[in-house]
Amino acid sequence: MQRLDQEAHDITTPLTSTSQFIEADDDDLDEESIPGFTHPGLVQSPHSPVPDKGKGRAPEQLAPPSASAAVSGNIGTPVNGSGAPPSNRRSVGGVRVETRYTGTDTLDEPITTTIGRDLLSIYTKLIQVLYPPRNRGNRDLLRDWDLWGPLVLCLMLGILLSMNAPASQSLSVFTSVVVIIALGSLVVTVQAKLLGGRVSFFQGLCVLGYCVAPLNVAALVSTFVHLIYVRAPVALAAWAWCIWASVNFLDGTKIEHQRILLAVYPLLLFYFVLAWMIIIQ
Amino acid sequence: MAYVQIEADERMEEGPERLQFQSFLGTDARQANQESTASRGYFSDRPKSSGFWQLEYYQPYFDVDTKMVIKRCYTTLLPHTSNYLSAHLTPSADLYGPFWTLTTLIFALFLSSSLASSIAAYLTDPKNSSAAVLEYDFGLLSTAVALVYSYGIGVPVVLWLALRYMGVGEWSVIEAVAVWGYGMFVWIPVAFLNINPFPLARWILTGIAFLVSGWFLVANVYPVLATADAKPVRLIIILLVALHVVVAFCFQVLFFGYYPLKELGPKDPIPPPQATATGKP
């Protein structure tokens, strides 16, 4: 039913407003609507024959006015008059580039500001993934995926578990945690795509990686509390939290109703193995 | 000399016929799904032709819903499912079930063997509460991965290739993998039941699982072998049964053997599993 509704909606929507439905990996942005920033001479340079390659490249590097105009146009001002989109794609010198407007001039800021902004973006994504009802309408944040957060969380869980493991097992525990998280989130994402879900590949990896965070908390708790009566409920609660957060994400991928269980089951398995490793360590 | 030349000519004529291009990867599955998905509407916007390197190529093999997968799983337990391929794998075999059956089996083996060894250690020494938390050999996890995947995916693919080389068999490689993957389903409940602390019961349960899955494999693979013109091809079934015995024995010894009991030794109220080794069917 959801799918039918979606199709009907698409049919009734006029063509001119399709640019509002910004999909995650949408490659067919209408490039004609973006004002041309490319120098005519630069666009032709890839088409030049091979012996002229050196000559064709020379103007590409020696065309400061048009190039700098494009760059400053990128950073300083929003391109479309109707509000700044999160990402813009255009071709500069025949090469497609994607730029993000961050709101400030990022060229000559101190490096602490840059790192702080990245950490802040990881933090806001973490909050949104772990507590979806907080900003329900604002799913666009996840479109700006990164893999740094998942990497940090995965390594943190591996280190926590291998610290608790006996010395002879610590290396294999670390290896299996990292391999399970990497391969597991890969397989689950590919599998959601194969079941017909509309999900961007890296966005899925990003969300599944951020959903490991509650298990990190459980591992941290079980580092200090060794009672099995405390560790097992904490790990199971973290597992339930992981499932809740990731199912919330899967809700948006428009998988069919009869097969949503097929897409959720691998998630249950994936996170339960990690929770189990926390319990028995 | 002339006779030899004629024979050579015949071979030349035969050559190009044998070297025709054929699609081995389940043409029937893809064609059957073309019609069924059109009615179900899961993949309405799928491109008509896609290469095997694209994800859309594999979507027909994941075109199942929850009820179908569950039905395919539990029908392997019934002894009278002799024509599983034609009766239950319709309209086409899938890859979702086999893959997740095998993966679930790996984690079931991991979970049951780790939990059972904790219980065994607790029964050995109930006074010592820290005995419940013991060193689990994480090498067993990678052993389980290698054993289950190589048996559940490697063996059918090799068998299919060998049969294809001999020109036997009207099945696709997807169907071969599906038979093995769904056939291993019985081991999942048995792995959980084998947490019980009685070695004789564990051996009996393993024997039951061996008989059920072995009967399922024989009943579904032997008709394919029987279509061969050469009678000796049918002897392959003996090889397959021998392989199945080896795998069942590996499961019992590696994962249901409660290896810590040997280390904890004399205070053990339960005899080690080797004492009942003759009870193996």
Defining key terms:
heterodimer; A: 281 residues; mainly alpha; 2 domains; two-stranded antiparallel ribbon; 11 helices; 2 strands; disordered N terminus; B: 281 residues; 0% strand; disordered C terminus
- Spatial extent as radius of gyration of chain B: 24 Å
Q: Write the element-wise H/E pattern of chain A from the N-terminal end onward.
A: HHHHEEHHHHHHH
The oligomeric status of these chains comes to heterodimer
The poorly predicted ranges of chain A are 1-34, 36-86
Span from first to last CA of chain A? 45 Å
The fraction of residues in strands of chain B falls at: under 5%
The helix content of chain A, as a percent range, equals: 55-70%
Distance between the termini of chain B: 61 Å
InterPro entries (chain A): Yip1/4-like, Yip1_dom
Transmembrane segments (chain A): 145-165, 171-190, 202-222, 228-250, 262-280
GO biological process, one term (chain A): endoplasmic reticulum to Golgi vesicle-mediated transport
Main location (chain A): Golgi
Brief account:
With 281 residues, chain A is mainly α.
Question: Can you give a write-up of this model?
Answer:
Chain A: It is found in: Golgi apparatus membrane; Membrane. Chain A: It holds the Pfam family Yip1. Chain A: This is Protein YIP. Chain A: InterPro entries: Yip1/4-like, Yip1_dom. Chain A: Belongs to the YIP1 family. The complex is a heterodimer of chains A (281) and B (281). Chain A has 281 residues and is mostly helical. Chain A folds into 2 domains: 92 residues, no CATH class; 165 residues, no CATH class. Helices cover 59% and strands 4% of the residues of chain A. Chain A has 11 helices and 2 strands, in the order ααααββααααααα. Chain A has a two-stranded antiparallel ribbon. In chain A, helix 6 runs antiparallel to helix 7 and helix 10 runs antiparallel to helix 11. The radius of gyration of chain A is 24 Å and the shape is globular. The two termini of chain A are 45 Å apart. In chain A, 27% of the residues are buried. The N terminus of chain A is likely disordered. By secondary structure, chain B is an all-alpha fold. Chain B has a domain of 187 residues. Chain B is 61% helix and 0% strand. In chain B, helix 5 runs antiparallel to helix 6. Chain B is globular. Chains A and B meet through helix 1, helix 7 and helix 11 of A and helix 3, helix 5 and helix 6 of B.
